[in-house]
Amino acid sequence: MKPAPFDYAVPRTIAEAVEALGDTGRKAQVLAGGQSLILEMHLQRVRPDLVVDINHIPELDGMRVEGDELRVGALVRHAAFEPATAVPGPLGTLLSKTVVNIAHPPIRSRGTMAGSFGWAHPASEWCAIGVALDATVEVTGPDGARALPAGDYFLGPHRTTRRPQELITAVRLPLLGENTGVSFIEHRRTHFTFAQVAVAAALTVHDGVIADARIGLVNSADRPIRARAAEDSLIGTETGPLPAGPRLPGEHPFARAGRIAATQDAAPLDQPYADAEYKRQAIAVLVGRTLLEAAADQRARLTAREGYHR
Amino acid sequence: MKITLDVNGTRHALDVEPRRLLADVLRDDLKLTGTHLGCQHGICGACTVLMDGKAIRSCLVLAVQCDGSSVRTVEGLAGPDGEPHALQRAFSAERALQCGFCTPGFLMVAAGALEADPGLADDPEAVESVVGSNICRCTGYEPIRRAIVCAARAQRDTTA
What we know:
Chain A: InterPro entries: CO_DH_flav_C, CO_DH_flav_C_dom_sf, Diverse_Substr_Oxidored, FAD-bd_PCMH, FAD-bd_PCMH-like_sf, FAD-bd_PCMH_sub1, FAD-bd_PCMH_sub2, Mopterin_DH_FAD-bd. Chain A: This is FAD binding domain-containing protein. Chain A: Keywords: FAD, Flavoprotein, Oxidoreductase. The structure holds 2 protein chains of 2 kinds. Chain A has helices at residues 14-21, 37-42, 89-99, 105-108, 113-119, 125-132, 228-234, 253-265, 276-309; strands spanning 7-9, 28-31, 50-53, 63-66, 69-73, 136-141, 144-149, 154-156, 159-160, 167-174, 180-187, 197-206, 209-218, 225-226. By secondary structure, chain A is an alpha+beta fold. Chain A has a 5-stranded antiparallel β-sheet. A 4-stranded antiparallel β-sheet of chain A has the order 11-12-13-14. In chain A, helix 7 (228-234) packs antiparallel against helix 8 (253-265) and helix 8 crosses helix 9. The radius of gyration of chain B is 15 Å and the shape is globular. In chain B, a hairpin with a 2-residue loop joins strand 1 (2-7) and strand 2 (10-15). The termini of chain B are far apart. Chain B has 2 domains: 2-76, Beta-grasp domain (Ubiquitin-like (UB roll), Roll); 86-159, DNA polymerase, domain 1, CATH 1.10.150.
């Protein structure tokens, strides 16, 4: 099928875009990268009356560090995060390690990070990272700008606290300190399918003891979630000598955290080729492995720093 | 809606409905049928073209979005005298096609990667992500990988 007819608006400023979206008589969709939207329009599962193309609004482009946050404009494409140096510190490592799991290069050259937050798919990698790191979604609507904490932004598949007349202008992610190690691991059937399950982890370690743990779970519930119970089980734990991996001893704190994430935090839904029980098993294994990699990353950073100061 | 589209160096003034995809305008209006439409889901990659130098799926971009952009299709790969592009020669030499349906897409995704990264020949991971971008049901990918590496080496050696 082809997309059904629609009106097409090309605003040049945020104010013009918000004005176009403000017409409540017509069902409007914002078009940024369009890599999900245009597909859904092909299938006519989404049939907007109006498409507001924001690609010609210069103020939405570009990302920059503001204080201790990274502000990613609504037009920044996935591909921008591919170099590990595009974003400073461990956050840059996490984003570059994650981005290669998002479709493939021709999709990443169009799709945007902010668009992922707008689309709010439960299997979105960026959204799980946003929830885990306490990102902020910036929106502007007829009543002005709002900053929405990612923690309670997602309400369900494709449902968020953004109002239909509001435009996402940017996503803000907190930068990660030098004592933080990161990792991201995704499990899927083929290169061309969405994640069955994926895990993002950021471990902050002081003197060998875990001071903060962030675990984001992809496609492990009806929305992206943070594995808080698993995180709590890790705080105050000594990282100790790291097992060779990837198979962790059952009594290892990371393996335990994996089991907690799978049983207490996740609420996976049945899917073809991955029922809830299978997903719980995958979550338990992946959380453990991702934590192990994050701890190893933190240790490597520490070694590099000590080597540098010597 | 009236747009101007620069396709393979030729400017076209077109009047297109907003709902129409870049792939359909290339094939139906401009008769550039080298760009193939397979899945129309953005997965198979047969419709890949370059938009402002970057590989994109022309089935997931509206033609009106390309107003003022420059688009390059497989018809624009060969030189002005009809001399095949290094990639086309390598695909032929390495037998990187059988039925040929996916070939325009593979050529364009590879052309985009080659132009963006002159050192592609020495970056197996990058080549892998290019080969993994599209679907081929005939070759098993290995000849395509060889052809891209071969063309990338040829390019490196001529520019070195």
